[in-house]
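Q: What structure does this chain adopt?
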Amino acid sequence: MKHSTHFLPYLFLFWVGLGIGNLTAQDQTPALKPDAYEPNDKIQQATLVAFEQPIKLNFHTANDIDRVKFEVKEPGLVTWTLTNWKGKGKLPYLYFCDDKGQAIKNDDAGNLYVKTPGVYSMFLHAHQYSWERKPVDEPFELTMHFKAYDDPTEPNDSIKTATPITFGQPLALRFMSRADADFLSFQTPGPGVVQLQFDKLNKKILPKNPYVIWYDTQNKPNDKGYYDYRITEKGTHHLRLISSYYSWELRAHQEPFEVKLTFHPCEDETEPNDTFKTARAINFDQPATMRLRPFNDVDMLKIQVPSRGLVTCTTENWDTKTSGKKIPNFIFYNSDGKKVVDGKPQALLEEGTHYIRVNSAYYNWELRSIYKPFDVTVRWKPEGDDLEPNNDFASATPVEFQKPYTINIIPEFDLDIFKLVIDKPTYVNMTHTDYKAPKGKPQFPYVYYYKPDGTGLQPDKNGVVKLNKGTYYAEVSTHSYSWERTFTTEKFNVVFHLDATPAQPDATQQPSRSADTVMQNQESVSTPATTSRRQTKPGVWIFEVEMIK
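A:
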């Protein structure tokens, strides 16, 4: 039987009517007793309060509004405290307004920094969202506070009103609210670096230094977040300070803190030298004096390598305290600008033009300004290994067994690879003479064997490896672990031998059971295992298994 649906429209109207009736009944619910300051819903009716004099308010209806006003007679900070709040949420919804009731744009509802004396007001509601509002009959107590502040730098929220600052002289500033920003202007006599320093910051309020944005002579923002700023021309520059880069970390810092700017004129005649085109040409064995200012400064050096060899950078007068590093960071490039070695003071370079990039640290977040001059000396030493290049399988040196080969390991990640052709199964090892191990490294060179497909073959404890008929490769280095490898400029000899004697197995070691033995044992079991069980207590069983052959 088909159910009738003609009554559904009437059912819908019934529910709508019921809802309207409930809303009407809710509005007609007897209102709570208003507080003593009602009516104060409009700005013309706002309650005048005195600082440090608490007043008791309530929201006698869900949509009740309370407005209070107060007079500020001198520049300072207006704050408030609220106690005995029993409404929904931690606090009522409130914000500061002017004397006409218009909201004042302020990211910090907890305080208002007043620059111009006059009458101001505050708007209070039970909740920000209408559907969350409910009457609050129990009175809560509101107290307004004021503290005068004499900040002669205000107003300085724009470039036009920026506060002048003199190099070398501290300037006291405050962040009167979370969104407060301070602009400073300064005059530069010419090219150089401006260093920004902070003092007397309350680290409990601002764990990090304020965020800075630098502006050039055309009032265009340039570097951001850096406390060293490179100046390329004479003129007026600006900077903008806020308490943090992230909006959720903004904090008011009403306590005065000090800002100081220091100007360091450009004393490096080689600047600019930050690119390949402007790189500074130097000669081997002649110190090059440099500075790294500002913190992200880079000095590019240009060298001419006469033939393949090891190029080494040494440093004198490096500021380890400021940098936190033993030496600067060096990066080597070839003539095409392709990186050859990164983060090392040495590189094996081919004949021709090369570049060396010098900065204060490998990682960007560790960069520091190095104001103290230091010297970098670049030295070159021919490789002296006639077998090079032999760093891969394709260029491996063919081996004649029993013949000595003179090699060295330059640079630290250098590999000397030899090609072994085996006619029949045999044992092979490598011996060495005149090897001078780098400090802290094993007293012998490390050798590892590979099949042509790259599969490794581990030698035994005597350095002997069993090889079948075919082609193999031997890799010689200073250490088994790549991150432990270093260089040895002294030459040494290596010899590969056939029919070597492998290491004998340890007589005290238990022989391992082979898979065949295990299978034989399994096949010898003619009677299935028997299993018994017994229960010791509820939920616990002990199984006893007996194997019967």
